[in-house]
Amino acid sequence: MLARIWDPTEATSLREEIIFRRKADVAAKLGAEGEVDTDLMLAANQTIARSDIVDWDASCRSWLSAADTVKLGQQTKLRLIVNNVDLSVDNKPDTYQSILTA
User: Fold this and answer.
1) Burial of 91 (0-12, 13-18, 19+ CB in 10 A)
2) Which of 32, 35, 50, 92 is geometrically suited to a Cys-Cys bond with 98, CB 3.0 to 4.6 A?
3) Cβ count near 86 (within 10 Å)
4) Please, what's the largest Cα pairwise distance for the chain?
5) Contact 57, 2 (CB under 8 A)
6) Contact at 8 Å (CB) between 27 and 43?
7) Which residues have CB under 8 Å from 17's CB, separation 6+?
8) What is the pLDDT of residues 12-34, one digit of tens each?
9) Strand, helix or coil at 35?
């Protein structure tokens, strides 16, 4: 979804924010409850370089491009439908919350 809607720089920044906020959520849960699942704690303690996030975004865009090529007809029909629906994509002020509740 991020790669479809935002340009690479914005999508990468959003991914960084999601990672930062998720780590904060895990830390808050640890502080409040005194424990969290070991796998969750190990995942939250990883350092993820921005270059890795950039690569992740590029990979997403590559997969989307391949899928678009294979599903061109269905994608065209979907775009025609979506363009005729009058709905806001994001009406929440906090992007992190928008992505997690989508």
Assistant:
1) exposed
2) 92
3) 5
4) 52
5) yes
6) no
7) 95, 96
8) 999 999 999 999 999 999 999 99
9) coil
Structure tokens at 24: 């904060």
Is residue 88 over pLDDT 70?
A: no
d(CA 63, CA 56): 11
- Given the structure tokens 């350092």, which residue do they identify? 47
Quick count: other Cβ atoms within 10 Å of Cβ 23? 15
Domains of the chain, residue spans: 2-101
Question: Which residues, at least 6 apart from 68, have a Cβ–Cβ distance to it below 8 Å?
Answer: 75
Residues 6 or more apart whose CB falls under 8 angstroms from that of 21 comprise: 96
> pTM above 0.70?
no
85, two tokens? 């629906």
The enclosing H or E element of 17 equals helix 8-33
